[in-house]
From TrEMBL:
<keyword id="KW-0808">Transferase</keyword>
<protein>
    <recommendedName>
        <fullName>Palmitoyltransferase</fullName>
        <ecNumber>2.3.1.225</ecNumber>
    </recommendedName>
</protein>
<keyword id="KW-0812">Transmembrane</keyword>
<dbReference type="GO" id="GO:0019706">
    <property type="term" value="F:protein-cysteine S-palmitoyltransferase activity"/>
</dbReference>
<feature type="transmembrane region" description="Helical">
    <location>
        <begin position="12"/>
        <end position="31"/>
    </location>
</feature>
<feature type="transmembrane region" description="Helical">
    <location>
        <begin position="43"/>
        <end position="65"/>
    </location>
</feature>
<dbReference type="GO" id="GO:0006612">
    <property type="term" value="P:protein targeting to membrane"/>
</dbReference>
<keyword id="KW-0012">Acyltransferase</keyword>
<dbReference type="Pfam" id="PF01529">
    <property type="entry name" value="DHHC"/>
</dbReference>
<keyword id="KW-0472">Membrane</keyword>
<dbReference type="GO" id="GO:0005783">
    <property type="term" value="C:endoplasmic reticulum"/>
</dbReference>
<dbReference type="InterPro" id="IPR039859">
    <property type="entry name" value="PFA4/ZDH16/20/ERF2-like"/>
</dbReference>
<keyword id="KW-1133">Transmembrane helix</keyword>
<dbReference type="GO" id="GO:0016020">
    <property type="term" value="C:membrane"/>
</dbReference>
<feature type="transmembrane region" description="Helical">
    <location>
        <begin position="138"/>
        <end position="159"/>
    </location>
</feature>
<dbReference type="GO" id="GO:0005794">
    <property type="term" value="C:Golgi apparatus"/>
</dbReference>
<dbReference type="InterPro" id="IPR001594">
    <property type="entry name" value="Palmitoyltrfase_DHHC"/>
</dbReference>
Length: 168
């Protein structure tokens, strides 16, 4: 099954997604500028720490963009229901379409989604059957980047030697 690109027209969701991208850009520019590069110049950390930070940051934004534009499992207008599965389908009360039993109607998106988990405003998309794994990847890479940033901040204040005046 080919993956379709899916956009949700929701101003609140676009604001949340823009806020997440702004925070990502802020951290991707300022953490290296104020913590990584000065400590690298003074020999406190290696270049591997800088590459690891950018590597984690790249994976985080890539998984965010993939999860936000991936089709969550939106049901088509006229689904082809196999004869053997007709008893496993039901009528949606809101959009009046036939849907599989574990599908739910998203009031934010206005359509039914296969195995819908929830509508996430931070990716401005539903989390369903087709993009659930992408959402879990986003959560994992965000946790890795946040932990790495927290460790760098802790090391900057409590472990590394103080910066010289020109790097301060």
């Amino acid at each position: 099954m080919g993956r379709r690109i899916h956009f949700v027209v929701d101003p609140q969701g676009w604001c949340c997604l823009a806020l997440v991208i702004f925070v990502w850009l802020y951290n991707t520019i300022l953490i290296p500028k104020f913590i990584l590069f000065p400590h690298y110049e003074e020999g406190h950390i290696s270049v591997v720490a800088i590459f690891c930070y950018y590597f984690c940051s790249l994976f985080c934004i890539a998984s965010l963009l993939r999860a936000s534009v991936a089709d969550p499992g939106k049901l088509p207008e006229n689904p082809k229901i196999p004869i053997t599965e007709r008893e496993c389908w039901e009528l949606c009360n809101k959009c009046h379409m036939m849907r599989p039993k574990r599908s739910h109607h998203c009031s934010r998106c206005g359509h039914c989604v296969r195995r819908m988990d929830h509508h996430c405003p931070w990716i401005n998309n539903c989390v369903g059957e087709y993009n659930h794994w992408l959402f879990l990847q986003l959560c994992f890479y965000t946790q890795i980047l946040s932990s790495y940033t927290l460790i760098l901040d802790f090391c900057h204040y409590y472990y590394f030697l103080p910066l010289k005046k020109e790097n301060w």
